[in-house]
Write a structure and sequence with these properties.
alpha+beta, Pdz3 Domain, six-stranded antiparallel sheet
């Protein structure tokens, strides 16, 4: 996934009462990860969303009290955002988070599948080192000649050894406040050569769906995030796949995104029917797939501990509906519904109000989804090899 777009690993499902006025969203709330985006269902409840009977409220934070705490802090000349952060931290809402106006603006822009960054993906390597895993064509990193496998040693003079990928991304992004045209200095190591490369950040489009044909005829569809348009791109990839070719749907490291896009992606493999149920402020609702999907083509879904929220929603739908065999390791376990609240200083607090469940009624939050076939190192090539073997057994490969 591209580095720098404000992606947050603990994604959540929530309706949206502010900003674009949509009705439901998967939001990335928490520390920064390696890419960006989420979004919403349309405000009107189409055939895809049906209301059911209400259940008890699931929120953990008094939104009115939160707003008052922020206002009181501002009246005393203190930071309303900091007061809100302290309030949420004490509330016990483990997915709750507070964003400043600039942070939330960047986050909103990321919903459209774009981000401000240098156009590279990072991963953990041996001995806690950080290395470049992918370079986006046409981006600043590519133009500077950086390559996959290059090691990142420093960012703006700070050593990145021992830091998490999320922390490195925050440095590359300028902690969420950097604009296009701002610079970042990367200490890079390639073999025995070490140098400093100063890059100018740019506004880039995310590459959230990649499709390639494997040598055995399998169609590999890698979905890195559910940004705007991803669902239709998945549907298009399935429609364009040769007759009889199996699909390997790679959701590893997918930190989630637009719930509407996850539902559209599910529609590529389902002919209507339930995708998930969820509750918002105690009201039960259900999310349905569109009709007309390919229900015959063999499908194997690859997942790991980085498969989160919207990606888990899709995984649960395909698994429970018997539409895909899942391979890899237990998913992250993020299925919290959150409601945004605008604070007096313009900050936005994301507060948990409920949870979603798979078609079979299984809760995801704090549990994750256990795949049908567990592979020790789900992030490596062995997991893909096992998945291809399973797919071949289903008649989807040579």
């Amino acid at each position: 996934m591209p580095v720098g777009p404000g992606f947050r690993p603990d994604v959540c499902l929530r309706p949206r009462g502010v900003l674009r006025g949509a009705a439901l969203t998967l939001v990335f709330a928490g520390v920064l990860a390696t890419a960006a985006a989420t979004g919403s269902l349309p405000r009107q409840e189409s055939a895809a969303v049906k209301r059911e009977q209400p259940s008890p409220r699931g929120d953990t934070v008094d939104r009115g009290a939160l707003a008052r705490a922020a206002a009181d802090a501002m009246a005393d000349g203190k930071s309303g955002k900091k007061a809100a952060e302290e309030f949420v931290s004490r509330s016990g809402d483990r997915w709750g988070a507070v964003y400043g106006p600039a942070e939330y603006e960047e986050f909103e822009q990321a919903l459209d599948g774009s981000y401000t960054g240098v156009g590279l993906s990072a991963r953990k390597a041996a001995r806690g080192r950080i290395e470049i895993s992918r370079v986006q064509a046409g981006g600043p990193a590519a133009k500077a000649g950086l390559r996959p496998g290059d090691r990142l040693v420093t960012v703006d003079g700070r050593s990145v050894d021992g830091l998490s990928v999320s922390q490195v991304v925050a440095l590359l992004r300028g902690d969420g406040h950097a604009r296009a045209g701002s610079t970042v200095a990367l200490g890079v190591e390639r073999g025995r050569t070490t140098w400093t490369e100063t890059l100018s950040r740019a506004r880039l489009a995310t590459e959230d769906v990649t499709v390639r044909r494997l040598d055995d005829g399998t169609v590999l569809i890698k979905v890195s995030a559910f940004t705007k348009g991803v669902g239709e791109r998945v549907r298009g990839a399935v429609r364009d796949a040769p007759a009889g070719a199996g699909v390997l749907l790679d959701l590893r490291g997918n930190a989630g995104g637009l719930v509407a896009e996850a539902a559209v992606a599910a529609s590529a493999f389902l002919d209507g029917g339930l995708v998930a149920t969820y509750d918002v402020d105690g009201e039960q609702r259900a999310l349905y797939a569109q009709s007309g999907g390919d229900t015959e083509r063999p499908v194997v879904a690859l997942v790991d501990g980085g498969t989160m929220s919207a990606a888990e929603l899709l995984t649960g739908a395909l698994k429970d509906r018997g539409r895909a065999i899942t391979v890899g390791s237990r998913t992250f376990g993020k299925g919290a519904v959150q409601m945004p609240s605008t604070l007096p200083d313009g900050s936005v607090a994301e507060l948990t109000v409920g949870h979603y469940r798979t078609p079979a009624g299984h809760g995801v939050d704090g549990r994750g989804i256990t795949p049908d076939l567990i592979v020790g190192d789900a992030t490596g090539e062995r997991a893909e090899e096992r998945a291809r073997t399973v797919l071949s057994g289903l008649g989807g490969g040579s």
